[in-house]
Amino acid sequence: MRPSASDKVKNSSGFTLMEVIMSLFVLGAITLMFATTAPSASKMAYMNGQYAQAASLCQHKIDQMRAVGFGRLTYAELHDAGIIDDSPSTPPSYSFALADSVSEYLPDATAIVRVDQVPLQPHVLKVTATVTWKIARHQTHTSSMSLSALITD
User: Fold this and answer.
1) What is the C-alpha to C-alpha distance for residues 79 and 68, in angstroms, rounded to an integer?
2) What's the pLDDT tens digit per position in 128-150?
3) Which end of the chain has the lower number of beta carbons within 10 A, N or C?
4) Distance separating alpha carbons of residues 140 and 81, to the nearest angstrom
């Protein structure tokens, strides 16, 4: 017995209109979920870059202070070596924002290195480098990164 034309239509392969609409709906929903996370992911990547840059600046300053050595961690020696800016903040804190061109890397940044004597240890100095910056120039929120190291005689 030969199949009729109506039997061929029932057995034909393919998608129904409802299946196509549902798959487009699911695809659209998934695309929308990823599209809404893109701006926040971009902002977070930018902020992570800022933190990495600040950590690098602090580590560089600590390395410079170690290279100068325990006995030469004074304003005059640090200034002559080009490690700190021209005018000291309030000793024992010194700015290095201009010396390291920090504003080229982070918006509205300040950079301070502080040299403190460790209590009860006359041959140990604690050096702390701190960078503070605005997350974005048009915002008031700030972020900060600090690194400390001990330098011995």
Assistant:
1) 11
2) 999 999 987 777 889 999 999 99
3) N
4) 34
pLDDT in tens, 88-116: 667 789 999 999 999 999 999 999 999 99
- 142 phi, psi to nearest 5 deg: -120, 160
Q: Rounded distance, CA 88 to CA 93, Å? A: 7
All structural domains of the chain with their residue ranges: 17-152
- Given CA atoms 43, 46, 127, 152 in this order, what sign does their dihedral have? positive
Q: What is the pTM of this model?
A: 0.75
Round to whole Å and give the CA distance between 126 and 98: 23
Per-residue pLDDT tens for 44-54? 898 899 999 99
CB 93 within 8 A of CB 113: yes
> Which residue do the tokens 């487009």 mark?
24
